[in-house]
Amino acid sequence: MKTSRWVTTTVVCSLAAVGLAFGAATFVDSPWQSAIANSEREPVVTVPVERKTLAADVADVQGKFSAGREVVVPPPALDVPGVVTAKVLDPGDAVSSGTVLAEVSGRPVIALVTPFPLYRDLVPGAEGPDVEALQDALRVLGDYAGTSDGEYGPGTAAAVAALYTRLGYSVPIDPELADAVDDATRALADAQRDASAADLAEGPPDDVLGTAGADDVDEAPSSTGTSSVGASTGSTAVADATRELADARYAALPPLRVSEIARVPAKGVTVLSAAALGTELGGATSAAGQAEQQDVAADPGAGADAGGGDLVRLRVGTPSVTVRVGVASKSAFQAGATVEIRAVRDQDAVVTAQIETVSEYRQPDAETASGLPGYDVTIVLDAKAPFSDGDTLVVASQEAGDTKAEGLAVPLVALREDEAGTFVSVAGRGRVAVTVVATGDGYAVVDAGGLAEDDAVVISGPAPGGGADDR
């Protein structure tokens, strides 16, 4: 009996010891398990924020060459096909307000700078913003000295006449209205002749003939009253004819034919090609064709099919290249500084030019090819620069740059970006918003009120806890 109890006790204790050993094993990692877990864990790597002065190094910067946009001046809207009777421009010629672009069937096509296309013929009595735009354009050319009141009257008509005369062309006229002036002139002459005959029939006044005696009253001419009525009627006829002549002359003042006007921008317009002398051009009577001809400052290629052929092809916009430079190089890319420009595709295509403008500091955006913050530097080139539209150009400053920047610096790999902007992750604190001031040597000098020297910024691994500090 005792032996049986001892055996039972021994078995129970053994099972309990095995259970305890198994349970303890579940809470204790083996060396192999710890090694596997460590191999799968991504370590957090941090570096301290430093104060740095980035060295000056003026590097070449790249940008795309823009030759401007190409637009077409189609033939004027005529009732019948026209022909080029004089070629007045050659490729490369500059175009400005008041320039004759071409001559079609003996009539000019004149470039004018207006804020919008002139959309109708302007005749005496016309009113509206298009008249005011014409008056402004003529004033700039020195042909109009009146007020831009939007009323097409004698002053505006005289300015239009002065423009055509100065360009060497006859002033526009309406033949029917000119004939009406001739008719009114003859009518006035007839009225004046009739009035003079009536005055003669009335006879001299009483102070010339003397006063008739009482005995002679019955013998006095009985037609005196009738002559007075005739003279009065003649005077009225002369007055009416005079007014009609004045009205006819007003109506016949020189108009502005919209078919002879082409709207152009204020600057940056050069000729690419022009129709040769003798080129036959199709007529275009539709209002749409006329509008296309008049507005050559519209979209590229606008009106290319109007009228059956191109009259003149223009390049609108100044040839230029715009590059983005960082704070580090800004001192070497100042307005007026000389730069060397060469094409990537052709190293022999090299020109020198001066910087036209430098923008304010800009953050990266969709228009920034480099994807970096900085300043947009624009260089205007000669119209005959040896580059094609869209060429990649390398722009190199010919001046030494100053020190890039000095301040708190973090490695470029520490910079992070999201929809809220650029930031770094600081150990123990989390996100701190920053503004990149300059980059170089693998570092970025940043401006951040929530960052201090020796702060640990994360360059690898998950961001440590600590909450968001979006200062």
TrEMBL record:
<protein>
    <submittedName>
        <fullName>Putative peptidoglycan binding protein</fullName>
    </submittedName>
</protein>
<dbReference type="InterPro" id="IPR036365">
    <property type="entry name" value="PGBD-like_sf"/>
</dbReference>
<feature type="region of interest" description="Disordered">
    <location>
        <begin position="193"/>
        <end position="235"/>
    </location>
</feature>
<feature type="compositionally biased region" description="Low complexity">
    <location>
        <begin position="222"/>
        <end position="235"/>
    </location>
</feature>
<keyword id="KW-0732">Signal</keyword>
<feature type="domain" description="Peptidoglycan binding-like">
    <location>
        <begin position="128"/>
        <end position="162"/>
    </location>
</feature>
<dbReference type="InterPro" id="IPR002477">
    <property type="entry name" value="Peptidoglycan-bd-like"/>
</dbReference>
<dbReference type="Pfam" id="PF01471">
    <property type="entry name" value="PG_binding_1"/>
</dbReference>
<dbReference type="InterPro" id="IPR036366">
    <property type="entry name" value="PGBDSf"/>
</dbReference>
<feature type="signal peptide">
    <location>
        <begin position="1"/>
        <end position="23"/>
    </location>
</feature>
